[in-house]
Sequence to fold (149 residues):
Amino acid sequence: MLAAFLFLSSAFGDLRRCPLDAQFVVVDDARGSEGSGGASRTPTLVVRNVSTVAVIGFVVKVDFVDPKTGAVVSYRIAKVLRETPEGKRVPLPPGASVTLRRTNVPTLTGDRLADSKVTFDLVVYADGSHWGPASLLQSTELLTRAQAK
Fold:
């Protein structure tokens, strides 16, 4: 069962609207975490294509922020190129979504969870064009790989 956990948005200096949207959802995991002996609820990032064209890849950065101080306490970067093991591209069509692996949200003192800020650094369309500042190393790597085919 999925339940909305926290809505996240993205904004860049690029004047075009971000073609992807992200939302944390909580997944009930029947297996539970190691040593818990039961079910657990795990935050998971779901990325949805809100553009009118297919997307083959993206780089997303999640900053975890202490809500009291505003300081970034941790971050995760995911580089996603949708392809089969044989290298065939698998476009994410408009309106479709993809679930990224489970993300551990840092716990701050007093069992408070860190706030999250999601930023898309790069989105690569099926036609080879791209959106975003591509300022991260992972974005450069993804562009190089996406343009190699």
Notes: Confidence is low (pLDDT under 50) at residues 1-15, 32-39. The beta strands are 2-8, 20-29, 40-49, 55-65, 72-81, 97-102, 115-125, 130-131. The helical segments are 137-147.
